[in-house]
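User: For a benchmark we're assembling, each entry needs the component sequences followed by a predicted structure for the full assembly. Here are entry 17's components. Please fill in the structure.
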Amino acid sequence: MAETMILVPGRSSKQGTALNKGKLKQEYLSITSTLEMNSDDMQRLGLEEGDSVRLSNEVGETVVSCKGRKPEDLPSGMLFIPYGPPSSQLMASDTAGTGMPLSKNIEVLVEKVA
Amino acid sequence: MAATLRIVNGKIYDPINNIDGEVQDICIEDGRIVKSLPDDATRIDAQGMVIMPGGVDIHCHIAGPKVNAARKLQPEDHRRDPHPGTPFTRSGTGGTVPSTFATGYRYATLGYTTAMEAAVTPIGARHTLEEFHDTPVIDKGFYVLLGNNIFLLNLLREGRKEEFRQAVAWWVNSTKAYTVKLVNPGGDEPWKGKKNSNVSDIDEKIDDLSPRQIIEAFITTVNDMGFPHPPHIHCNNLGHSGNYKTTLETMRTAGDQRAHLAHIQFHSYGGELGKNPDSKAAEIIEYVNTHPNITCDVGQVMFGKATIMTADAPLAYVLRGLTDNKWVNVDTECESGCGILPFNYQEHIYMHSLQWAIGLELFLMSEDPWRVVLSTDHPNGGSFMHYPKLIKLLMDRGFRKEEISRVNQKAIAKTALPDLDREYTLNEIAIITRAGPARALGLKHKGHLGPGADADITIYDEMDDKEMMFNAPRYVIKSGKAIIADHEFVGDHIGKLLHITPEYDAKIEEIVQPFFENYYSIEFDNYAVADSYLHDHEIVPTTNK
Amino acid sequence: MSENIKIVKHATCTFCGCVCDDMDLTVDLDEKRIIKAKNACVLGRAWFAEHTIGDWPIAMIDGKEVSKEEAIEEAAQTLVKAKFPIIYGLSDTTCEAQRQAVAITDIIKGTIDTTTSVCHGPSGLAFQGVGESTMSLGEVKNRADLVIYWGGNPAASHPRHFTRYTVTPKGMFIPNGKKDRTVVLVDVRKTPSVPVADIFIQLKPGKDFEVLWALRALVKGKKIDASIEEETGVSLTTLEDLVDKMKNCRYGVLFFGMGLTMTRGRHFNSGALMALTTDLNEFTHFVAKPVRGHGNVTGADNVLSWQTGYPFGVNFNRGYPRFNPGEFTTVDTLSRGDADAAMFIASDPASNFPKAAIEHMKKIPVISLDTKQTETSKLAHVAFATSTYGINTAGTVYRMDDVPITMRPAFDSPYPDDEEILTAIKKRVRELVWAKQGIKIAVGEARVA
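Assistant: Structure for entry 17:
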């Protein structure tokens, strides 16, 4: 079962501190691979806390682990992830003449990794 | 170019030393002009050429936060005016707000060797010094904005005159400034704190303090402290019909103490508020002519593109209402405001033609060119690149007449300009672009070619067309080093910072610091500019009374 | 902890654009580390604690340790040989270093860009289009009775923004601090910043422009249909209420972040917000400010603007600066394969750039300067490890509101700073270029910047 959702990469406090420790270290890699998902959506997709999900679009794909958020905090169909190498895999390079690639509100296909 | 140099056969215009077109030698050694040199010193033969001291721009906007915002705002302004690099010189872009390298080099191509940035916030002084470091050739200094400084105005409200004096000296020292600048004194608080209002009368009280009281306090204090240049004042009501009254009152406030009025053209309007202005140039120049304590720069408007950049934020907002163009406003905590917008002076518009004419009236009716010096308030009235054309307007009445016939005639009819026949001589041009500003600034080593002067020298081919002549000096020498020779760049130079260090009692910091901690957003210890930003610099002495 | 302890007061943290200069650092000079950073937020504490002296080589070529001089030579040769060399990054280094980077680009006639292009570059473009009414942060502290955050999450990215500058502090005309202010937060999801706000407005993703435009219309007294709620997720009543608050405040501020610049519309989104701010000045005093990410990205904007006239995406191929976002910006010059050599200074595009850009980076010679090992330094042909600005190196940085601050470093580092490396590269590059062009000038006399 796969669904299309909107991915919002952004900052998080833990990502900021881990960044300082070193971007090649496990802590940073682990934080930037942790996806926040609406808990109702998780249930519908048969996902448990910490399960692996594949996010993919025409640019690329990445496998991350999921973490539930209350529906009143994170609307259905929306995903949040601290930005880093995993989220970059899904970023298209077209900047529409501005220099800025679209880095938020990225449409992705979400599916549970068996 | 050698450390010694002799320039021979040129016609010298050195008004400070009473030389008016005589052919004389100039000797240079180690960056200064000297009385004599051995015969075998390197020579430049200036046969058929006119020699003047390097130009001194007493009022321009070339470096700092406000200027950089205006640069960033207008890529379209730069795109049409690239400034290619050479093996000696960095590249850049021009337009009305050139990049820093282009600014320095372009002043050099006009034969200018000193320029004073007219308005910098204390918290932005560090930025100005950084940009100065990237502004080549010219020596420079800046005026620090204190006329809307909340801490200082509060001291005045409380009648704490001695602490006011100490604090002013502290502020000038801490920022490495050249003198104090007042812009629309008292007008900042109504703008920021009272929903975009302004002060409209020199005696209007804003929280119990009037602009006149502010102006009077600064003039007295700065004169007492013997600054080489007095308070540099952008009067209230700039641009408004009838504002000449405010200007006269501002000058009267000085009594017989020194004061400098900035871009006085913008402050010479008659008529009723809300209606089109007419010219009061005659009234303004009459006052200046008869009061030797007053110096001013004209702030001539030149047609074409300009950029308004001013600490007079309410004024910029009013202008925005006229043009509906992009507009920048920057509030600086506890210190100042700022407004920026692109602007165009057009010959068919009444107001613009009137402004242009009034500037020329002021020049032509001035009886003491030492005290009514040349500026366009670059880039507010137009770019400094217009100076050669302005010089031609002053020297060539035929050309002037042609130009007058092309502009809005209703505006011309409100002025005395068509009847003013005077033509400036080369000597008088040397006064309004070199000797006069140097003297008004108290720069004893600039603006002249006598022994001891900085070897800042411009050599022009003498030509009938004065615009062409002043546009392209053949040689420009800075601190004894050739920067331009035979119209080409042959060297580079990092000009020095000119600043003053008036004495103050360090105890004043104990009073300033608590205010800081409450109301500023940076640490008091991090506010004053460190000496590491000085690089090449010269401290110009004050004469404390 | 040794006994050789130094206290550095009023030091500056440059992790984020807050550039807090009230850091009191306790420094162990023997162990060369900062053991305490008083006043720092959680990100600042990590910044100070984790930047210690590394054990990796100062200079490497293709992963093998070399001398600094060899690496500088190889870097210079690489840049001069290239037809379309690009320089990028610069937001985490001093202005003094940034100036050298522009000088190098001028000499090699290359292209220079900063992290602005993938951060608030769109806001810079909007600025060029519509201008901006703005302020220094102390004005917010002293005056702002209405503070609005749009598309940003300061609790995660700029933790002290609220507490040092905009919400908590008491100010000259705000004697009761937060009690005298109304705080509004606009975002697509409930972030950790929401608890600070009195009003949270949640809108649908990608609808910021529509909401901002509707606000502009309401400010100007035009009618908006109630169907705006269906379109944007925000009800007409909420919008009308917000407009009422904005028009009637004494001093209003709109802070905005990546939610506007990184989404569809980019500079149109920022521009709509900045235009709204301008519109509001007809009624009251209103200002806006983009919340800048890195410690000295504002410095990079300023240095590029004053040296070239343009804030980012600057090309010198013709011997003078030209500006064209989309053509000369780095995501584009890499993704399109234009660049045939690159120097990345104080940034890590191999982690954060789009895939196509990263793929091309792997195909060209890369020079990197960074304080720690990153994905970018790993793939570099020439890699320099440099000291950390503000911790080891002195210099000037600009806070998000253009206030310039001089840093007070804590302890020395055996690693060279960025300015030293770049100045050496500049000198060598100039020699190589002049040799190529047959120019003979005694460099001593001509003090070219």
